[in-house]
Design brief:
Elements lengths: L4 E8 L2 E8 L4 H12 L6 E4 L7 E2 L16 E6 L17 H7 L33 H5 L8 E2 H9 L40 E3 L4 E2 L3 E4 L2 H14 L4 E11 L5 E10 L3 E3 L4 E3 L5 H10 L3 E9 L2 E3 L4 E2 L12 H13 L1 E3 L7 E4 L2 E7 L5 E8 L1 H8 L3 E3 L6 E4 L11 E6 L5 E5 L3 E2 L4 E7 L28 H10 L5 H5 L2 H9 L10 H9 L2 H8 L2 H11 L10 E2 L5 E2 L8 E2 L6 E2 L15
Parallel strand pairs: 1-5, 6-8, 7-23, 9-11, 9-26, 14-19
Antiparallel strand pairs: 1-2, 3-4, 3-5, 10-11, 10-14, 12-13, 15-16, 17-18, 19-20, 20-26, 21-22, 22-25, 23-24, 27-28, 29-30
Helix pairs in contact: 7-8, 9-14, 12-13
GO biological process, one term: retrograde protein transport, ER to cytosol
Pathway: Protein degradation; proteasomal ubiquitin-dependent pathway
Protein name: Nuclear protein localization protein 4 homolog
Length: 596
């Protein structure tokens, strides 16, 4: 007699399939059938008796009857690297501190009792005064100014709210690549199927944003960055270092606070920027981490003088041209993919990014304005999987690549209105980049804040083209000009600390930890302890002998550093009209005002 056949149901994230088997079939043979049916490698998945990932079925010679698997039983398949069912929280993911803090907050918008509409007592609540959810669109639209995007944590509350408490909520990262491991057909371009083919993408305005506000701690940070353009006319790019804090103007909002700008090696002209390999990148990240800072974004200039006599700049980025070019969107997407946002609700352990983009450009009043942006998660996916290209002659347009024998690219669409006002779907070839952009308010505080309290200006790195170099001569000049007697205030400069760590004569990478702790915690006692170290004594000795001069022939400032006259061999920019003047002159050739 023929052995009775069993039908075993196998539930996977892509659906359920029925696998024929017998009682005497071994678990190893059964798993091979499952792998073939679902298109997995033999070790690309795990099967469990229960949905909560208990009772795993291993590849062994035990029969299904010994494993107590009967006809009609349901088994659960999880691909390798999967966090399990949708809505499962990955407790192993270490989220950012600000995310952990906001996850514990109530987030609701509390309202006072309305004297005209509320007809109840002081302890009662009605529809006119009951607290609102942080994702309430009507409330956000009536703020001044209106908020188009809810905060990311408000979006999470919306997903995890309701009767099911987010049991089926999951944040899925978009993929534009063919799923690997499909063995039912030859690989692309000879074959493709619905199981491994990525879905088409329809671009939509993202309803949330990961960062709701960008704030520079003080104007000095931005002014020093703009000095390069003022003195050369060339554009400039830098990385923003700071921290993420709560933005209280928006429910459960996040603010990126900028404490310093690091300018990496780059080739710049009036119309272009080219980033070069940075040998100091790892050291900068290490210093920032020890100071309690992280890389929160990048900034670049797009400035062109309108009238040098009154210091105005051209207003070039507006609704009639573009706010971010396609090439800048692709660059922003590249940076955001490098800085993913840790998230427990995503199977991959990350979702989106908090990395921001700031553009220093001309505003409607022809003054320099700082505009903040991010690109959407859809744009990040298109950039990560190399599906998006810029258009050569139209900076405001991108172009979704077409499939080739080397790469399959899913169709990308966007919706717009035709001349009759109807919604029409267009293929994204070309693509207006405003579908990819999220704008973020950029501000300066009324009361300036200072993570780095030094009042003197140590030269910024990688500005050799201006004659501004980081060496022991410039350090000696810096120390001699410092009038403060508080050692912490003198060394509390990001660019100075970077020089002390990365200089080639005496790098202090392994012995500067105490000083970095002192700057981080504003502890003068720690700074004084480090000042007494051999390393600082050697630094002072090197400063006193710069240029081959004996220390006895140099004058010393308040800090005991050598007093070296400032160089007068470089061109200088007028603080009043930004005109570039010849070396050695003490009055501006344009406005006749004194140099200082």
């Amino acid at each position: 007699l023929a052995e009775p056949q069993l039908i075993i149901r196998v539930q996977s994230p892509d659906g359920m399939k029925k696998i024929p088997s017998t009682k005497r079939e071994t678990a190893a043979a059964f798993l091979k059938k499952v792998a073939k049916e679902f298109g997995f490698n033999s070790n690309g998945f795990s099967i469990y008796l229960n949905r909560n990932k208990t009772g795993e079925i291993l590849s062994q010679n035990k029969t299904l009857s010994l494993l107590k698997i009967k006809h009609g039983d349901m088994l659960f398949l999880f691909p390798s690297g999967s966090s399990g069912s949708s809505g499962e929280v990955m407790d192993t993911v270490q989220e950012d501190e600000i995310d952990q803090y906001l996850a514990k907050q109530d987030g609701k918008i509390y309202r006072n009792r309305d004297p005209q509409l509320c007809r109840h007592g002081a302890l009662g609540k009605c529809v006119h005064c009951v607290p609102l959810e942080p994702f309430d669109e009507d409330y956000l639209n009536h703020l001044d100014p209106p908020v188009k995007h809810m905060s990311f944590h408000a979006y999470i509350r919306k997903l995890t709210g309701g009767a099911d408490k987010g049991k089926f909520a999951a944040l899925e990262n978009i993929s534009c690549k063919i799923k690997s491991g499909c063995e039912g057909h030859p690989p692309w371009p000879e074959g493709i199927c619905t199981k491994c083919q990525p879905s088409a993408i329809t671009l939509n305005r993202q309803k949330y944003r990961h960062v709701d506000n960008i704030m520079f701690e003080n104007h000095t940070i931005a002014d020093r960055f703009l000095d390069f353009w003022r003195k050369t006319g060339s554009q400039r790019m830098g990385y923003l270092y700071g921290r993420y804090t709560e933005h209280k103007d928006i429910p459960l909002g996040i603010r990126a606070e900028v404490a310093a700008i690091y300018e990496p090696p780059q080739n710049a002209t009036q119309n272009s920027l080219e980033l070069l390999e940075d040998p100091k990148a790892a050291a900068v990240e290490e210093i920032a981490a020890k100071l309690g800072l992280c890389k929160v974004g990048w900034i670049f200039t797009d400035l062109l003088s309108e009238d040098t006599r009154i210091g105005t700049v051209r207003y070039s980025r507006n609704k009639d041209s573009y706010y971010l070019s396609a090439e800048e969107c692709i660059t922003a997407g590249y940076f955001q993919n490098q800085q993913p946002n840790p998230c427990r609700l995503s199977r991959e352990g990350h979702f989106g990014s908090k990395f921001v983009t700031v553009v220093a450009t001309g505003g409607p009043d022809n003054q320099v304005h700082f505009e903040g942006y991010q690109v959407s998660n859809q744009c990040m996916a298109l950039v990560r999987d190399e599906c998006l290209l810029p258009c050569r002659d139209a900076p405001e347009l991108g172009y979704a690549k077409e499939s080739s024998p080397e790469q399959y690219v899913p169709d990308v669409f966007y919706k717009d209105k035709d001349k009759f006002g109807n919604d029409v779907t267009f293929l994204a070839r070309p693509l207006p980049v405003e579908y990819l952009i999220i704008d973020i308010t950029t501000t300066f505080p009324k009361d300036p804040q200072y993570t780095f309290s030094s009042t003197q200006r140590f030269p910024i790195e990688n500005r050799d083209v201006l004659g501004e170099t980081q060496d022991f001569h410039s350090l000696a000049t810096y120390l001699s000009q410092c009038t403060s007697t508080v050692f912490l205030d003198i060394v509390s400069d990001f660019h100075l600390l970077l020089f002390l760590v990365t200089n080639e004569v005496m790098p202090l990478r392994d012995s500067i930890g105490l000083l970095l702790d002192a700057v981080k915690t504003s502890n003068e006692d720690l700074a004084q302890t480090w000042k007494k170290s051999e390393q600082w004594a050697t630094i002072e000795q090197l400063c006193s002998t710069v240029g081959g001069q004996p220390s006895s022939s140099l004058e010393y400032g308040a800090m005991g550093g050598p007093s070296v006259p400032a160089s007068s061999s470089a061109m200088w920019s007028c603080l009043h009209c930004t005109f570039m003047n010849q070396p050695g002159t003490e009055h501006c050739e344009m406005c006749s005002l004194p140099r200082s």
